[in-house]
Design goal:
Layout lengths: L2 E4 L9 H4 L14 E4 L8 H8 L3 E3 L1 H17 L5 H19 L1
Parallel strand pairs: 1-2, 2-3
Helix pairs in contact: 3-4
Length: 102
């Protein structure tokens, strides 16, 4: 295995059943595999937790959100989006939201 990518809503915040259901069983994740999740809230989904326990490298969904937005922004405006600033603000907002509601 080189990479496993979750593009389902399993793990998404707001639905306890979805949040508790990883898209694949932990024992199916090979050690050293890269696991990426399109879900960005919560940043650390059950899938990514299982992948970490299995010894995989993990990639959070926040990058998916920010970099697809940056590509669209540049396409529409011709201007580069400051992704480092946007990522920092997104992480702060997620911490506040998850801390307040979570």
């Amino acid at each position: 295995c080189e990479i496993i990518v979750n593009t389902t809503s399993l793990g998404m915040w707001g639905d306890a059943e979805l949040m508790a259901t990883p898209p694949i069983p932990e024992d199916a994740i090979p050690n050293g595999c890269i696991c990426s999740d399109a879900v960005y809230i919560p940043p650390d989904t059950e899938f990514l937790k299982a992948a970490r326990r299995a010894g995989a490298q993990i990639v959070h969904g926040t990058g998916w959100l920010v970099y697809q937005a940056a590509a669209a922004w540049k396409m529409w405006t011709g201007v580069e989006m400051p992704t480092d600033v946007v990522m920092e603000v997104l992480h702060e907002a997620l911490e506040l939201r998850l801390g307040a509601e979570g």
